[in-house]
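seq:
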Amino acid sequence: MDAVPEQAAGAAADAAEAAPGTQLNLDLYPGGCRRLLHLCAQQPLPLLRVEFLRLSTHEDPGLLEATLAQVPWSLLHLRSLVLKGGQNRGPLGACLRGALTTLPAGLSGLAHLAHLDLSFNRLETLPACVLQLHSLAALLLSHNGLSELPEALGSLPALTFLTATHNCLRRLPTALGASSTLQCLDLSENLLDAVPPEIGGLSSLCELNLASNQLRNLPASLAGLRSLRLLVLHSNLLTSVPVGLARLPLLMHLDLRDNQLRDLPPELLDAPFVRLQGNPLGKASPDGRTPPAAPQDPEMPRLFLTSDLDSFSVTPRGCSVTLASGVRLHFPAGAITTPLTIHYRLWLPEPGLVSLGPHDFLLSRVLELQPHSLAFQQAVSLWLRFEPPCARRCRQVVVRTRSDGRWSDLETHVEEEAPKVVRMAGRELRALLGEPDAAVSPLLCLSQSGPPEFLQPVTVQLPLPPGVSGFSVDRSRLHLLYRAPPTASWDDITAQVALELTHLYARFQVTHFSWYWLWYTTKTCVEGLARKAWARLRLHRVNLIALQRRRDPEQVLLQCLPRNKVDATLRRLLERYRGPEPSDTVEMFEGEKFFAAFERGIDVDADRPDCVDGRICFVFYSHLKNVKEVYVSTTLDREAQAVRGQVSFYRDSVPVDVPPEAEAARQKKSADALWIATLPIKLPRLQGAGGHWQGAGLSLMPLNLGDAETGFLTQSNLLSVAGRLGPDWPTVALHLGVPYRVLQRIRHEFRDDLDGQIRHMLFSWAEGHAGQPGAVELLVKALEQSDRQDVAEEVRAVLELGRHKYQDSIRRTGLAPEDPAGAPALQPSPPAQA
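struct:
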C-alpha cells in the first residue's frame, strides 16, 4: 500500500477534528479510503468519538475492502455508516454506481450501528453481516442489483425503515411480515408481481410504497395494517383492491393512479384522499353489473408498460402508450410510415443533464427516447406529471428536447387537475336580486386542454350556498345552472339531474367539462339574473399607465392593470421607465376590447399587426399582463422645442378624429362614453445634427441596421422579430455572439419580463452593430442556426421589399444600372442636331 503524503494526512486529520466530535465526511475527498486508513493507523483521539462516517465507494475494490475491515476496530461508537455511490456522473450526467459488491464480515461487530446506507452500488445479495446488526434501525438499499431479500431480514429487532427501490426484486420474504417494529417500507421500481399475505402482520407499518411494479392483485391481509397512513400503488397492473382498505382507520393517502382498475368499493371511489387518474373506471349499474367501457378505436392500440420493459412498438396506425412512471405518449395514425421499435429510459432529474438558467429547476425526470433525431410525420403528444405545489412556484413550465447536442423548447400546455372555482360576494348578489336570503355557491369550472377522460359519468361535489344546510333546505329554491362556453347563456338544469344533498354539499353527475353554479333564491327564472351576475364577476376595476423608457423616450410602454397590481408593477418598472401617474380607476370587463390612440403630434409606427388605423388594439384579461411597447415618432420640428403629445384610451372603436362629445366625456367621466383616459407623452428636444438626443449623459444614434442596396431593418422590424422569438431568444443571442455573462445579466435585470429580456438583447445588439456591413446577414444566420427558419424568412421578405423599393427609386431618378445584356436600363435622349 502506498504511503499517504503528509499534506493529505494532515487534511484528513483536520477533517476529523473539524467536525463537532462525531462526524467524519470523506465521500467528497479524493482518496478518502487512503485518508481513513492513515487515521486508523495513527488512532487520533477525535477518531474514537466519531459516530457518523461517510465514505465514497468509487474506489479500488481491494482498497475499499481493506478500509472497511478497519472500521470496526477504530470506530467503536459508530452509529451511522454511509457507503453510497452516485457521486460520479456519466457522459449525460446520470449517477454512476459505486464498486461495492459485498461487506466484510467484521462489520457485524458494530454494536451501535443504527443507520446503514448502501445505495447506488453493485450489490446482488444482501451481505450476511447486515443481518447481525441488532441495533440497525434504518437500512437503505436503493439502486442496486438485488433480486431477493433474505428471510432473516424480518428478525432484525430494531428495524423501522427499509427502502430497496430501483432493484430487481421479484418476490418478498414471507418472514418480513413478522417484524413488529417496521414503520416505513419502500419497494417501488422493482419487478414484484405478488405480495405475500404475511405482510399484513406488520402491525407498526405507517407507510408502504409498492409503486411501479407488476402487481396484478393484492392480498386481503393488507386490511390488517391498522397503523397504515400512506399507501402508494400507482403504475401497476391492478384490476381490483381489497375492500377492507376503505376501513383502515388512519389511512390518509391512497395512490392508485395508472392501473387497470375497473371497479372500486364506493367508500374508496368517493374518498378525497384517493388518487385514481389513469384508470378505466366504470360505475356499477343498479343490477350490480359493471357496464362495458366506452368502445375504443380498434385501429388505435393502447399499451400499459410495466417497469421491466424498456421499449414498445409503434405502427403506422398509431398507439397510446402509458409508461410505468406515469408518462404518456400518443402517436396518431400516420405518425410513422413503417413499424418502429422505440426504446426509452428515464434519467434522474439532475442539473448535470440539462442546461438550466439561474432561476430554472427541473420538475420531472428526463425521458430519453431512441432512436434519436427521428422525424415524425404527425405531431406526437407527450404528457409529463409533476406535483401541483411545484407548478404554483413556477412562472412558466416548459418541456425541452435535446437533438444534435442542442436543447430547444417544445410547445407546452399545463393541465391542472384541480378545477377552477370563482366566488361572488354575497352582498353583491343580494343587491342584484333584491332578496336578503339569496345565496350562491362557488362557480365551478371544469376544463382541460388535453384528451377527454370521461368514459362514464363523473360525480361532482359542490358546496351548498352559504347559510344553506342540506337537512333543512327548501329544494324548490335550489337551482343548478349550467353554461357551455363560448356561449354566454346560463341554463337551469335542476330538473335534468339527480341532486343528492348532504349537510354541506350537493352531489350530481356530469358527462363532460363545463361550468356549474348552484343558486338558492325564491326567483323562479334565474337564467337572466345569472347572466348579470356573471357579468359582475367579469367586471374589474383597472388603471392604465403610459411610461417612456429612460434611455430611449421614443419607446413607450402601455399597460392595463387591475387596481391591486398597479403599485407593485410601477415599483418594478420605474427603474427603467418614467412617466405620469396612472389614470383614474375605471371599470372594464374581462375580454373587453379597447384602443390606445396617440394624439397632438405623436404618431405610432403603423407596421404592427395590432395597429388599426394608427391605433393600438388591446383585449383586457385580468390574468394576463396586457402590456405593449411601441415606438412613436412625430412630424413636428423637435430641434426647435420638445413635442408635448398624449395617448388616449377608447372603448370598442375609435373615431378618426377626437369629437367634441369625447372632450365633454373627459370632463364628465361618464361610464358609457367611448373615452376612458388620457395620459401625456413628451418627446424631448433634439440637439445637434443627425437627430441625436442628449439626455442624462446618453447619446442614442438612430437605428441604421443594413444598407440601401441589401435592405434596412427598422426599429419596427426588429420589434416584430422580438415578438416572435419567445423562449428561443438565448439561443439566438449566443449565435449572434452575445457573451453568456451578458445573457445572465439580462435575465436578472428583466427576471419578471420575458418580452423585456428579448427586446433589450436584440436592440442592444442592433445598436452595437448599426452601420456595420454584414449585420443583417449575421442576424438571419443566427435565426437559422437557432431553428427559427420562420423568423429568418420574415426578415428576408422585409429585406427583399426594401431592395425593390431602392431599385424603384433609382430607376425613377435615372440612376438605374445597366441590365445584364449590357444595354442601359433607361436610354438617354439623343443630342440635338445642329
